[in-house]
Specification:
Layout (H helix, E strand, L loop, with lengths): L1 E5 L3 H12 L3 E5 L3 H8 L10 H10 L3 E4 L2 H6 L3 E4 L15 H13 L4 E5 L7 H12 L5 E5 L9 H6 L4 E4 L3 H10 L1 H5 L4 E4 L1 H32 L3 H9 L20 H14 L5 H24 L8 E5 L15 H11 L2 E5 L4 H7 L4 E2 L3 H5 L4 E4 L4 H4 L3 H7 L4 E4 L15 E4 L13
Length: 443
């Protein structure tokens, strides 16, 4: 079975590589010739643990190829995946389906024989039917089926999520398509992965519903963290107490500066806009969208207030720039809201991230970038931890004492062990926890 993956972004590259690991012949195609040339040289366009090794392995086995000849590999395919970007449309928050519909047009012009066409991109309800209309209009005699197969890959853990997923969602309309897709996912059937077959619209909505629910959960625990700070409670114990209830579960009950990344921000916006189109109330999600955006700004204000607005000649060291550890993805990262506001207030900013530095340099201006933790922390008045990379978790009072001038630690991910800073000169300020060693923090 020949698989063609349209798009070599995060979803397309990871999915195509993993399907080749299943034993299928996969060609990932993209119009971006530079990206294809780099992939043929084993240069990855994204950082994802384990991906490069898997790409090299399957290229050498002859199962995985990359090409900018889109038409050729549409003709050869038994299954075509549409895995192009669906960013938020500027101005209204709707998902921009330009690339999806362009892919549909190109598929229609080059179909040969029966083909299953799968939307892997995250798309609003009804997109599959629109793709079908486009193809039929351009090529009335085309023999094909449309399938919706949304992805649930976590950046930083994508390979494992694909190979051993919690579930696979497949929306389709014919038994013939079901037979083809069942063959494709046979390796997951063998390990008893839950696979839910449903109709196209339901599959499309499941993706948005899941991401929006997780965004709600994150925002809920962030609001509980704010309350904990006011009353003197510990949000981590609150979260543990909640998570022990099996109806709630412990996942995504981790307080922080607000969610970011490629999925939650755009998917919550798209769901809100879809609900408006159908005159349905999703006010919970609307509130979460507004709250999450405001929270990032509030975190900058929190830092400013810790200094009592005394920002003159103050150096802040920022550890972590990507929206989460395990990725170089800067999309909607809290750092993009927090750092510019601190700069505007007059702070001198020095930043370090283990992976996302190149991406960050394109997006953040008027700050200094360091090559390592030690350089970043040197002579700092305060440390602000924005992304919980493992190498930051092991920072101790003795290490920080050697490097920093000031003694203020602002941990917006609660990654540092608070007990490590008991009976030290440091003031540790975390989210939803009592301040440790609450001395005068204005330097």
């Amino acid at each position: 079975m020949n698989i063609t993956m349209l798009g070599t972004g995060y979803v397309g590259l990871v999915s195509g590589t993993c399907f080749s690991e299943f034993g299928f012949h996969v060609c990932c195609v993209d119009k971006d010739k530079d990206k294809i040339n780099n992939l043929n040289k084993d240069i990855m366009p994204i950082y994802e643990p384990g991906l490069q090794n898997l790409v090299i392995k399957n290229k050498e086995a002859g199962r995985l190829t990359f090409s900018d000849n889109v038409d050729k590999f549409i003709e050869k395919a038994d299954i075509i995946f549409i895995a192009v970007g669906t960013p938020s449309r500027r101005g209204d928050g709707h998902a921009d389906l330009t690339y999806v519909y362009e892919a549909a047009e190109q598929i229609a012009k080059n179909l040969s024989g029966y083909t299953v066409i799968v939307t892997k991109s995250t798309v609003p309800v009804g997109t599959g039917n629109e793709v079908k209309k486009i193809i039929k209009k351009i090529n009335p005699n085309a023999n094909f089926d449309i399938v919706s197969n949304p992805e649930f890959l976590r950046e930083g853990n994508a390979i494992e999520d694909f190979m051993r997923p919690d579930r696979v969602i497949i929306g389709l309309e014919s038994e013939k398509a079901k037979e083809v897709i069942s063959t494709l996912y046979k390796p997951l059937f063998l390990i008893e992965t839950p696979i839910l077959f449903t109709d196209l619209k339901t599959a499309e909505l499941i993706k948005y519903s899941a991401n929006a629910f997780l965004a709600v959960k994150i925002s809920y625990i962030n609001q509980m963290a704010d309350l904990c700070e006011k009353v003197g409670a510990d949000v981590h114990d609150v979260a543990r107490g909640m998570g022990l209830d099996k109806r709630i579960g412990s996942k995504f009950l981790h307080p922080g500066p607000g969610y970011g990344g490629s999925c939650f921000p755009k998917d919550t916006l798209a769901l809100v806009q879809t609900a408006k189109l159908y005159e349905t109330n999703v006010s919970i999600v609307e509130t979460v969208v507004q709250y999450n955006q405001q929270r990032k700004s509030d975190m900058a204000d929190k830092i400013i207030n810790i200094f009592n607005n005394d920002t003159k000649n103050k150096k802040i060291s920022i550890l972590g720039l990507s929206f989460k550890p395990g990725t170089d993805d800067m999309r909607d990262s809290p750092s993009l809201e927090i750092i510019p506001k601190l700069v505007k207030k007059g702070f001198s900013i020095n930043a370090f991230d283990p992976v996302a530095m190149n991406e960050a340099k394109l997006l953040l201006k008027d700050i200094e970038f360091s090559d390592n933790i030690e350089e970043c922390l040197k002579d700092a008045d305060a440390l602000v931890l924005l992304t919980e990379w493992n190498e930051f978790r092991s920072l101790t009072a003795s290490k920080l004492r050697e490097l920093m001038k000031g003694k203020i630690l602002i941990d917006l991910r609660n990654a540092l062990n608070p007990k490590s800073f008991d009976n030290t000169e440091f003031t540790l300020i975390q989210i939803g926890r009592p301040i440790r060693n609450n001395t005068e923090v204005s330097q």
